[in-house]
Every structure is written in C-alpha cells, then in structure tokens.
Amino acid sequence: MLSPFPPSLRRPPDDAVSLRLTEPRASDGDAVYFTLGTVFNLESGDLFTRVLAGLRELPAEVIVTTGDGVEPAELGPQPPHVRVERFVDQQLILPRCAAVVSHAGSGSVLGALAHGLPQVLLPIGADQPQNAARCAELGAARVLDPLTATPEQVRAAVTDVMEEPGYRRAAERLRDELARLPGPEHAVGLLERL
After folding, report:
1. Bridge partner residues of 143 (DSSP)
2. If you write DSSP's letter for every residue of the chain in order, what string do you get?
3. Residue ranges per structural domain of the chain
4. How far apart are CA 52 and CA 113, in angstroms?
5. What's the angle, vertex CA 163, arms to CA 47 and CA 168, rounded to 5?
6. In the Cβ-directed half-sphere of 184, how many Cα atoms lie within 13 Å?
7. N or C terminus of the chain with fewer C-beta within 10 Å?
8. How many Å apart are CA 155 and CA 56, to the nearest integer?
9. What string of pLDDT tens digits covers the 194 residues of the chain?
10. CA–CA gap between residue 81 and residue 63 (Å, rounded)
11. Residue 36 and residue 43: Cα distance in Å, rounded?
C-alpha cells in the first residue's frame, strides 16, 4: 500500500510505503488560510459563519475558500483584510501563511504540513477525526468541535497556534519528515517490480 502520509502521522504503524507527493517548503507569511474542503463544506451548517466571525477579528490577512457549493457572497460583506473565494490554489497561498484552519481533510492537512504550518482543525467526518487527533497528538494542531466551536474559541485557538512556537516546531518536524520521503518515481519502481 502507498501512503502520502509520513510514517509518524499514521496510526497505528503499518507496512505502507510513504511517498512525498509535493515538495515541502518553508512558509514565511502571516496570513491565515481557512477551508472546509470540497465535500464536507456543504454539510457544515453554520460552521463557515462561526469560523469566519472569529477569524475576521484577527490582525492578519485571512484567505477563505468555500468550494463550488457555497457562494462567497452568502457569507456577507467582509472587512478588507478578509478575502473569500470559491477556489484558490493552495500551493500559491500556503507559502504566505502562518496557520491553517480546516476540516482536517487529508489534502488540507498534508498541504499545511508540507509548508510546516500549525493548524486549527474542525473535523466533520470520514478520516478527518483521525487526522485531527494525530496532528494534535504530535503537537502540530489544536482541535475544536465543529458543532460547538464559537467564534471566540476559533480566534483563541488560531492565536495560540500562531504565537506558541511549539506548534510551529512540531509542524516543521513533520514537514522535514515529508521532505525525506521518496517521491512518486519510487512508486513507479515499486509498481514495475510487481
């Protein structure tokens, strides 16, 4: 089995072969990126509104993606430092960030970790609770309950992961672990041997 997750992120340990799917790189910005992905974003109730209410009070640029099913205008007018779009390429945004807030989907978690970014995770379903729990166990994230998280709790959690250096160090350790993994060409070699 092939896995895009580094061995320390998988639990329990298994015999999967970990691969690096993207080139890990440092992030040196101060923005906050918020996404609920492309599947569970439609099943999140008022989560967008609650999280955004907390994030808009931060003294930082906030970049929000809603996905195809949610019209950005539905979230109402935003202050100048908050940008709401349906889609933004994470590879362009993450280098400008200091933290990521997401649903703990695999793509969002791996993207943030590939840039050494601490996270605030609000897992909704599928593999998200496991992803969130493991990131928290490794010290790279704070986890909030998506059903009860208040704007104040979101703001406090984001401030915490941005200001407490231990979260960033843990995320950077995972970024460095990802960087040491073989790339996709390793998978090709494994498949050719079958």
Report:
1. 121
2. -EESS-GGGSSS--SPEE---S--------EEEEE--SSGGGG-TTHHHHHHHHHTTSSS-EEEE--TTS-GGGG----TTEEEES---HHHHGGGEEEEEE---HHHHHHHHHTT--EEE---STTHHHHHHHHHHTTSEEE--TTT--HHHHHHHHHHHHH-HHHHHHHHHHHHHHHHS--HHHHHHHHHH-
3. 28-177
4. 22
5. 85
6. 3
7. C
8. 9
9. 777 778 888 766 567 777 777 778 888 899 999 999 876 655 667 899 999 999 999 999 999 999 888 889 988 999 999 999 999 999 899 999 999 999 999 999 999 999 999 999 999 988 999 999 999 999 999 999 999 999 999 999 999 999 999 999 999 999 999 999 887 777 677 677 77
10. 8
11. 10
| The pair of three-digit structure tokens given for residue 4, joined into one six-digit string | 């895009």
Burial 148-158, CB ≥16 within 10 A → b, else e: ebebebbbebb
Tokens coding 122: 């609000």
How far is residue 94's CA from residue 116's CA, in Å, rounded to a whole number? Answer: 10
Q: Which residue has the tokens 């994030």?
A: 55
Q: How many CB atoms sit inside 10 A of residue 44's CB? A: 19
- 28-177, which class in CATH? alpha beta
